[in-house]
Amino acid sequence: MSGYIIGIDIGSSNICAAAGKVERNGRMQILGITSSGCNGVKKGIVVDIDKTSESIKNCISSLERMIDIKINEAYISLPGGISELIWNKGVIAVSSEDREIRYNDVKRVLKAAKIITIPNDKEVIGVIPEQYIIDGYDNIKDPIGMNGLRLEVDAQIILARSTIINNIFKSVNKAGIKVLGIVFQPIAISQVVLKEEEIQRGVALVDVGSESINIYIYEGGILRSISTIALGGSIITNDIAVCLKLPFSEAEKLKIKYGSVSADPGKKSLKIEVNADYNKVKVDYDILVQIMEARVEELFSIIDKEIRVSEYYDKLSGIVLVGGGIATIKGIEDFGKNLLEKFMRIGTTKYIGASSPLYVTAVGIVKDVSNSIKYKNIDTTTNKNEDVTSYEEIAVGLGKKNDKDKHMGFVTKIKEFFTDFF
Prior knowledge:
Layout: E1 5-10, E2 14-22, E3 28-37, E4 41-42, E5 45-46, H1 49-67, E6 73-78, E7 83-93, H2 103-113, E8 122-134, E9 137-140, E10 150-161, H3 162-174, E11 178-184, H4 185-193, H5 196-201, E12 203-208, E13 213-219, E14 222-229, H6 234-244, H7 248-258, E15 271-276, E16 279-284, H8 285-308, E17 319-322, H9 332-340, E18 344-346, H10 360-382, E19 412-413
Parallel strand pairs: 1-6, 6-11, 12-17, 17-18
Antiparallel strand pairs: 1-2, 2-3, 4-5, 7-10, 8-9, 8-10, 11-19, 12-13, 13-14, 15-16
Helix pairs in contact: 1-3, 4-10, 6-7, 6-8, 8-9
């Protein structure tokens, strides 16, 4: 596909897809991004393969028209809310005669970390290294090129239910797209919206979707915890539909176009004309704002309670809000700051045309894959005799301290067990 990297984010109400390319100067560019409605996914889980597949087809068709190429392969995200993190350690002996640690040694120690006992209905999706230890010396972020006899890694193992992953893959494959790999959603988002200082000092990344809220807490350069709330932006739409006696689809349009949690004095007397079961009705703008304020305040209070129970609450420098559930509502930033009593900002990407918080995961997938490609190219240049396979292992460098770390992405090659599904 002429060097294009395609990322697909499968959400409960929208499928988002982004196309990127690594320029000659090494910088990634987003050349196209689009979204399509979806009603085959509930709380991050595919419940209707046909509907999900059709939504993916529509989204990819739109992206194809945008960048004028045929798309037949892509990378997808794995939602954090349907995943589980387990801490484990891997230990190996350095294999080279000169005791220099190479890429294959890192691959082997990460593979060793994945040797754990898990339930039959779950699979190991990947591994996130926290630190490497060489001959007892810890806090090493990138061991490649260093010397030692014994290499260890403290890591987080990512687990997910096989059936959930299976259905996601089937939906994408049925749309005519080959899945090249998976990117863990919290890592994908962090690639494009979080600052290194935030990740080190402590930050809560709050991804509010249509039907669920995922809260990812980073501290000390590491993803510390994941929690999920079974509520999302669709509950606001439902309130508007019930209170104003409107069809759900019209209530959603009303929320997107006029929704706000900060009433505009100039619109106090505004009457909004909408369709209601083949009739035209007029809605008071002020009432719309009151409905939204009440529900958003409740959602923020639930988020606040969830964050406060975390042992890292006092270390958090702030909260970053992403997703299409509430992050696009007018006035949400100041509203959230007042309720959460912490600095809060909306997480957006720096790429032109992709600045909406709705697109952060799709852009993050492309960014992470491009980082992995650059890292792989650097490593094959310095270790030409090594057997290096792109995307085979996860290599994460949060809070990176050197140039090489910056090219360490979070991408997995499709594991062997996925081939058994098809």
